[in-house]
Design a protein that fits this description.
The protein is 35% helix and 18% strand. It is an alpha/beta fold. The strands form three sheets. The protein has a ten-stranded mixed sheet with strand order 3-4-5-6-9-10-11-12-13-14, with helices on one face. A hairpin with a 2-residue loop joins strand 5 and strand 6. It starts with a helix and ends in an 18-residue tail after the last helix. The site of S-adenosyl-L-homocysteine (SAH) has 18 residues, from strand 10 and strand 12.
Length: 370
C-alpha cells in the first residue's frame, strides 16, 4: 500500500460542499446529520448557509449546536475566494481580484446602475482565444474554473460588509464560458435555483465568441438564460483578423446558431476606430442582426486591453447606431464603466502580473460539453 493511501485511510479528504448542487449537498448533509445522531433538518439548516444566507465558515452557523459545527468542520469544507485587491471607480463600479486556492487570480466586476447591480464574472483563469483587443487573451489560458469558483464570485458579494445584493449576472469577465461548459452548466443551476443564489434566469447572460456545441447545450436548458454573442466584425475576413476562433466557428455558423437558439440573442460589437466602424460594416452587421432578430450592443473599446487599437469616437458610435436603427435593428450604446480602474476584461490581473511571463494558449479546440 502506498503512503498516500495509508494517509487517506487515516484522514479522509474533506468534501467541498460548495462544489455540489444544493440538492446534492442537502442529501449529503441530512444523511450526515442522521449518522451523527442529529435530526435531518440540521442538514437542511447547513444548506441555507451555503448560498442563500452564506456563512463565512461552520463556526459562524450559530443556529447549529457547537458540537455539530465541529463535526462538520472535520468532514467538509466551504472554501472562500480571497479578495486580493478591491478597487472602486468614481462611477461606483467596483473591481475585485480574487485569489484562488492554488494561487491563481480571477477578476469580478460589480456594476451598479439604478436599482440593479450587475456582476461580471469569470469562467476561466486566463483565456485561450486571443481576441486581438482583449487583455485576458494576451495573458493566455491557465485553467478552467471549478463550478464553485464561478458561483462563489456571487457568494463572496453576499459576505462583504455591508453585503452587496447582486441582481444580474453576465459571464463577461475572464474566459470563454462555453469552453468550460462542464462547470458553467451546474454553476448556472446554483446561480438560478431558489436553494442556491436565486437569481432569475432572464437576469443571467452567458457571453460567448460563438462556441457552437455550447450554444446548443445552453439552448437545451429549460430556463430562460440569455445568450450574448461577441460578433465584433460583420464579415469573416475582418473577424478572422480580430478573433482567431473564427477559423473554427465561422460567422455564418455562429449566425445560424443564434437563429435557431429559442430565445432572442444579443450581439456584442466592440467599436474599434477605423477598423470595424465604417458604413459598410454597419450595413453588413444590420443584415446579420436582422437575420438573427438580434439586439445589438455597441461597446466602446476599453483602452488598455491588448493590441494597438483606438476607440471609435462617441460621434462615430452614435452615427453607427443610427445607421443600424435606420436598417430596422434594435441597438443600444453601452456606457464605458470603471474607466479609471481598468475594469475591462483581464486588466486588473494584467496590472498585477505584469512581470509574469504569460502562459501560452493551449487546446483551443477542447470544447467541453456535458
Ligand atoms: N469569452 C466571452 C466572454 C468574456 S469577454 C466573449 O468573448 O464573449 C466579454 C466581452 O468583453 C466580449 O464581448 C469581449 O470581446 C469584450 N472585450 C474584451 N476586451 C475588451 C475591451 N478592451 N474593451 C471592450 N470590450 C472588450
Amino acid at each position: 500500500m502506498t503512503q498516500t493511501n495509508t494517509r487517506r485511510e487515516v484522514e479522509p479528504a474533506k468534501r467541498n460542499l460548495l462544489n455540489m448542487l444544493p440538492s446534492a449537498a442537502e442529501q449529503v448533509l441530512r444523511d450526515f446529520a442522521v449518522e451523527h445522531g442529529e435530526k435531518p433538518f440540521r442538514g437542511s439548516q447547513v444548506v441555507r448557509h451555503l448560498w442563500q444566507n452564506p456563512a463565512p465558515g461552520f463556526s459562524a452557523m450559530t443556529d447549529l449546536p457547537a458540537a455539530f459545527r465541529g463535526l462538520l468542520d472535520e468532514h467538509f469544507t466551504i472554501p472562500r475566494l480571497t479578495v486580493a485587491t478591491r478597487q472602486t471607480s468614481s462611477d461606483g463600479t467596483e473591481k475585485f481580484l480574487f485569489r484562488l486556492e492554488d494561487g491563481e487570480f480571477i477578476e469580478t466586476v460589480a456594476i451598479p446602475e439604478g436599482s440593479r447591480l450587475t456582476l461580471c464574472i469569470s469562467s476561466q483563469a486566463g483565456c485561450a482565444l486571443q481576441c486581438a483587443f482583449c487583455a485576458t487573451g494576451a495573458m493566455g489560458f491557465t485553467r478552467n474554473l471549478q463550478m464553485f469558483e464561478i458561483a462563489a464570485q456571487v457568494r463572496e458579494m453576499r459576505l462583504l460588509d455591508p453585503p452587496t445584493q447582486v441582481t444580474n449576472i453576465v459571464f463577461m469577465g475572464m474566459g470563454e464560458p462555453l469552453m468550460n461548459w462542464k462547470a458553467v452548466d451546474p454553476a448556472l443551476t446554483v446561480l438560478n435555483s431558489p436553494a442556491g443564489l436565486g437569481i432569475g434566469a432572464r437576469h443571467i447572460t452567458v457571453s460567448t465568441v460563438g462556441v457552437l456545441p455550447g450554444i446548443v447545450a445552453l439552448g437545451e436548458r429549460g430556463e430562460q438564460f440569455r445568450l450574448a454573442i461577441s460578433i465584433h466584425a460583420p464579415n469573416d475576413e475582418l473577424r478572422q483578423s480580430l478573433m482567431p476562433i473564427n477559423t473554427k466557428y465561422p460567422l455564418a455558423d455562429v449566425i445560424e446558431a443564434g437563429k435557431v437558439f429559442d430565445r432572442r440573442v444579443t450581439f456584442e460589437y466592440v467599436m474599434l476606430g477605423g477598423v470595424n466602424d465604417a458604413a459598410e460594416h454597419a450595413s453588413q452587421l444590420a443584415a446579420l442582426a436582422r437575420e438573427c432578430r438580434a439586439f445589438v450592443n455597441l461597446i466602446p473599446l476599453h483602452p488598455g486591453g491588448a493590441g494597438d487599437f483606438t476607440p471609435s469616437s462617441p460621434e462615430q458610435i452614435h452615427w453607427f447606431a443610427r445607421r443600424l436603427r435606420a436598417a430596422g435593428v434594435e441597438v443600444a450604446v453601452r456606457k464605458s464603466r470603471g474607466m479609471d480602474i481598468s475594469a475591462a476584461c483581464g486588466q486588473l490581473r494584467v496590472e498585477r502580473q505584469r512581470r509574469r511571463t504569460p502562459v501560452g494558449a493551449d487546446d483551443d479546440g477542447n470544447v467541453q460539453v456535458a
